[in-house]
Predict the 3D structure of the following.
Amino acid sequence: MDIFWHDACLEHDAGTGLWELPGDWDWLDVPEPHPEGAARLRTFRHALRRGPVAPHLTWRTGRLATDDELARVHTADYLAALRKACEGPDRVALEVNTVVGPGTWDSVLAAAGTSLAALESVRSGRARTAYALVRPPGHHAQPAMADGYCLVNNAALVAETARREGLRVAVLDWDVHHGNGTQEIFAGTPDVLTVSLHMRHGAWGTNHPQTGAPDELGVDGRNINVELSLGAGDEAYLRALDEIALPALREFAPDLLVCASGFDGSAFDPNGRHNLTAAGYRAIGRRVADLGLPLVLTQEGGYLRGYAALCLHSLVEGLLRLPDPLLHDPLAYVPDDSRPTTADLAAVRAALAPHWHFARDTPPPADLAPGRPT
Ligand SMILES: [Zn+2]
């Protein structure tokens, strides 16, 4: 399994805090560091280099993307404005929590290019699975808009590049937030399947309305949103995979699966309200590996960096199908409140039924049957 890295991903400075706008939080003595800092990516790298999974991994150096490559998923006007905002000397807030400045453009090019390098490794047959360990994250970035710490949509760029090379591509996003940028980029492209598992998180900032409901189906139902209630944990995510995402992926039968891999669904993440544990991410990795597809993964969220690094390590163990957990999880004690999941998944199946055989022709699992308590 290849891990792709580029030092320039560390250059982007997201700011001093979530709440750096003047006057908002000036009663804090010590400002909060912005959760999407370079320290989180360095911590992720350290976990994979020093953790017990290290002997299974091959480290590769990524590259910078070209302007033409970025233009596959973003408008020329947006890219020009983004580049200009990154020229400094002042840092510029593109929206309330998404700040750019000197160094950001190098990180943007490195994150996008390194994600493409991961794709190239898989396309060449050198690796079956390649993980682009990059920042800034990408899955909220829309064709003409930055959003939610995201500037260029790395996962969508990988998917679109593979699509142009003639591959049938699917995107699976388990970041705790809705992959709204990816949804929008492929909204008119029924030959790409997009699946997002996420919490019902509400609107944020000035330009991010609540999105990700089951009835946002795209063309021919090729956009699947599995919206899970607050508190959803390992069981909820695994049911969402087993009952919705994996049957859809098998029915769609892609040549390549792109995974937008976030760890902000963990029980301890400051930016999420879900309860996944390291064991849950390990099980997600195992299920994805069991699909038997060529895989490219891009790093998305995950903001309690120590626990997110453990979750990354555990996900990689699952992707490698290692038989026993290599690391002890010292924090896994939060109960998994999956009670709302049955209703959540029934709503998704009902929305998908006109478009997908699995949702209308296969009997629902026992606890989705009518009359059972939800
Ligand atoms: Zn997220």
Observations:
- The domain at 2-360 is CATH 3.40.800.20 (Arginase; Chain A).
- Strands lie at 2-5, 58-61, 92-95, 98-100, 129-132, 169-173, 192-199, 223-228, 256-261, 295-299.
- Residues 104-123 form the longest helix (20 residues).
